[in-house]
């Protein structure tokens, strides 16, 4: 289950969106450069050759930048540092276009064309880079600065109209960013909430209400998952079946309320003795539990069994009607996965291991199978 926080999920979505935005903005930019190059060469634009040569050189450099930037976030080094890398590319992207726009306006006195081009590129940056604000601003500022300077120059020292245009551009860009980001964030937030609710429902469905450990439904799902993983990786898989000794006598003598307390205590002891997040304990039946130990050999499984026995003995829960001991004890059966063993066979193979409270190092192997619920 995906357990990312909302912030982490937004960052992840922003990374994905930026990666797509870089490819799209770079592709559109390459198309514009190609069209502009053919237009300036074929038509009589009035741009002198020296300026065209400068434009052609700048177009080649910009094309290389755009091609590299289109795949920037697919490179592991930049992917790991995507925020800094994205800001750097957005600045470079914008600087390339700012230089091209400035050259067009100066080279051929094409102020109107440069003004239109700057508006188009600003729109491309807004649509492609909106998901991360620093990247958007890094992509906006160089172009906006050059566009404003061109407006002042083309207006022949007039102040009011270029200033109004600058303010309007800032308002349009910022309001557009807010609208797009709100739409983007709301979608991520809604998806996050749906996943959170699904996880909560899944947890409720896979939890035992009495003991608050996993239930049999979870165990069957987890056993299938770990069984397939173990077969694929040829690793180890340990399984422990645990049964509270003479629990019926305990329940009959002390009542169901005390019996429930006993089950909860045993479940807590077992849970506390599992040291890895991949290990799990589930309530298999009334007083029966099953422990699943992925990537654990026989020696490791025996260590878990001994820890459970020792810590349960330390609880010293009195059993007034036990034929085994004055305290509550458990029988533990273990099994290790082998290549020819299936899931059902694995569940039937545990050998009962009874570890006496006063001599925990002694392991008595009992020939009969422990009683299991089916």
Level of helix content? 55-70%
User: H/E element string?
Assistant: HHHHHHHHEHHEEHEHEE
What is the oligomeric state here? single chain
Mean pLDDT: 84
Distance between the termini: 29 Å
Instruction: Write down how many β-strands occur, each being a DSSP E stretch of 2 or more residues.
Output: 6
Please explain how this structure is put together.
With 374 residues, the chain is an alpha+beta fold. The protein has two domains: 6-196; 216-366, Reverse transcriptase/Diguanylate cyclase domain (Alpha-Beta Plaits, 2-Layer Sandwich). The protein contains twelve helices and six strands. The chain has helices spanning 6-42, 49-70, 76-80, 82-107, 111-129, 133-154, 160-205, 216-233, 247-254, 256-272, 298-315, 343-348; strands at 237-244, 280-283, 288-294, 330-336, 351-355, 363-366. A six-stranded antiparallel β-sheet has the order 2-3-1-4-5-6, sandwiched between helices. Strand 2 and strand 3 (288-294) form a beta hairpin. Helix 1 runs antiparallel to helix 2, helix 1 crosses helix 7 (160-205) and helix 5 packs parallel to helix 7 (160-205).
């Amino acid at each position: 289950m995906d357990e990312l926080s909302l912030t982490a999920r937004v960052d992840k979505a922003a990374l994905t969106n930026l990666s797509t935005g870089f490819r799209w903005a770079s592709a559109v930019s390459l198309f514009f450069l190609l069209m502009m190059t053919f237009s300036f060469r074929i038509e009589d634009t009035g741009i002198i050759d020296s300026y065209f040569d400068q434009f052609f050189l700048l177009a080649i450099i910009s094309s290389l930048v755009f091609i590299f930037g289109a795949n920037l976030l697919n490179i592991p080094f930049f992917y790991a540092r995507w925020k800094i890398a994205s800001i750097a590319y957005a600045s470079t992207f914008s600087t390339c276009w700012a230089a091209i726009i400035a050259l067009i306006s100066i080279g051929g006195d094409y102020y109107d064309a440069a003004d239109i081009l700057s508006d188009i590129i600003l729109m491309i940056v807004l649509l492609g880079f909106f998901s991360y604000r620093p990247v958007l601003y890094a992509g906006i500022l160089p172009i906006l600065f050059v566009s404003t300077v061109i407006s002042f120059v083309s207006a022949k020292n007039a102040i009011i109209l270029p200033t109004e245009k600058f303010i309007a551009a800032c308002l349009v860009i910022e309001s557009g960013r807010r609208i797009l980001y709100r739409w983007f964030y709301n979608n991520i937030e809604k998806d996050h909430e749906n996943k959170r609710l699904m996880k909560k429902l899944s947890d409720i469905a896979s939890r035992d209400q009495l003991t608050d450990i996993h239930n049999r439904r979870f165990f069957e799902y987890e056993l299938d998952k770990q069984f397939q993983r173990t077969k694929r990786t040829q690793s180890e898989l340990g399984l422990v079946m645990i049964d509270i000794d003479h629990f019926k006598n305990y329940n009959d003598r002390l009542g169901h309320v005390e019996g429930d307390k006993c089950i909860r205590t045993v479940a807590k002891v077992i849970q506390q003795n599992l040291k890895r997040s991949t290990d799990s304990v589930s309530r298999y039946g009334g007083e029966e539990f099953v422990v699943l130990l992925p990537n654990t050999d026989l020696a490791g499984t025996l260590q878990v069994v001994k820890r459970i026995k020792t810590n349960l003995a330390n609880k010293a829960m009195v059993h007034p009607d036990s034929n085994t001991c004055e305290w509550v004890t458990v029988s533990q059966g273990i099994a290790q996965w082998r290549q020819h063993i299936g899931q059902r066979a694995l569940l039937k193979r545990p050998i009962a291991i009874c570890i006496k409270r006063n001599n925990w190092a002694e392991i008595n192997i009992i020939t009969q199978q422990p009683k299991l619920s089916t």
